[in-house]
Amino acid sequence: MAKKRFDISSTLNKNKEAQLAKKIPLKKTTKDPDQIKERVEEIHADEQPKAVAAPKPPPPPPPPEKVKLVRMTIDTPEEMHKKLKIKTIERGLSIRDYVLKLIEADLKKSK
After folding, report:
1. What average pLDDT does the segment 2-11 reach?
2. CB–CB of 93/84 below 8 Å?
3. Is 88:98 a contact under the CB 8 Å cutoff?
4. Closest Cα to residue 71, out of 89, 96, 103, 92?
5. For 93, which of 7, 51, 56, 97 could close a Cys bridge (C-beta 3.0–4.6 Å)?
6. Residue pLDDT, tens place only, 78-111
7. Exposed, middle or buried: residue 11 (CB in 10 Å: 0-12, 13-18, 19+)?
């Protein structure tokens, strides 16, 4: 099937008639980087309030020990999954965190 040719001459003629804004040439200036750096430092020096040295924050806690993880997959009824999802959202937890807490609590009971 051959491509249909489009006549856009009327659109081009309208654009020729349209009054477009005149181009304004940009002023090219050469600026001295040293002067700019000095001015920036002056501005920032004026903005910074002279404050008393704040105490150093405590060092960050050591990273947690890496624990080897094992994947577990379970199949649950759809209705149970919906209820579980609602409950975890209400508590602001993920399903994973919720299930891990339940398992941990159960394991502590059995000791």
Report:
1. 70
2. no
3. yes
4. 96
5. 97
6. 999 999 999 999 999 999 999 999 999 999 987 7
7. exposed
Give the separation between CA 96 and CA 71, rounded to whole angstroms. 11
Instruction: Let me know how long the chain is.
Output: 111
From CA 59, how far away is CA 77, in angstroms rounded? 47
Is the whole-model pTM more than 0.70?
no
Q: Helix, strand or coil for residue 56?
A: coil
With tokens 């890496």, the residue in question is 66
Closest CA to 98 of 76, 65, 110, 111: 76
Measured between its terminal Cα atoms, the distance across the chain in Å is: 80
